[in-house]
Amino acid sequence: MALVEYRVWDRTTRLFHWLNFLCVLGLICIGTVILYAGDLAIPNDGKVALKTLHVWVGYVFLINLAWRLIWGFIGNSYARWSSVLPGGEGYGAALKSSIRELFSREPEPHIGHNPLGRIAVTLLLLALLVQGVSGSILAGTDVYMPPFGSYFAEWVATPDKDPSLVRPYSPETVNEASYAEMREFRSPVIATHLNTYYVLLALILIHVIAVVTMEVRKGGNIISAMFTGRKTLPQHLKPETEIVD
Ligand code: HEM
Fold it and tell me: Going by CA atoms, what residue is nearest to atom 11 of ligand 1?
């Protein structure tokens, strides 16, 4: 069968992917240390430093994620929401044959995401979005950092403390009752952040297993395609549109 090279992932999508990979890896590592800070006997100063670093990496992660969400409207055809989200004309039938192909010897190659891959990528992006939103709130409740830090500092200082003097792990700088109220508000947010961390770990594992399995069974350089943007596949496949690079 004649093979040709297709240009699939545009530069923005590739940059997003690898920057996201680095940020998520960093956030998982630092987040795991924060989670076990008690067992590791990390002192309060160390916890504040870890949380502050986690939030700074979080900002890079958030800007990159926001840009990818926008790129879904303006990127090339394979980066657009119409090619990423499950649904659209013929999606149901394509999904069924994609599931059948899981067990076939010669699965049909796809230029962009296959129908099952769309579900996986959508779940991954959703989980990242939930982590981004819950993390942005925790940045305020835990270390009084933007975007909501000054709002939470004012909350815990009311009515008898100075909001500009509020510091993490410093009970003398906050009003006890207001602080307890704020912690109650925070409780479902940290639960969401922690549960989504476990969901993300599972999704990342599935993503890596799926990509490696597809690479071995279908070929088409799907791993290197995220570096080069190009896949080598049978000639009869039709590229959806011209590629913007
Ligand atoms: C892939 C993205 C992320 C992952 C996997 C992740 C993971 C984690 C984990 C495992 C913890 C410890 C939870 C606990 O102690 O119960 C944590 C805590 C925290 N995260 Fe994230 N995080 C992510 C994104 C973010 C973002 C974008 C921000 C803010 C910009 C953020 C801010 C925080 C803060 C402030 C804490 C401390 C909360 C505490 O007191 O434990 N996170 N994160």
Answer: 31
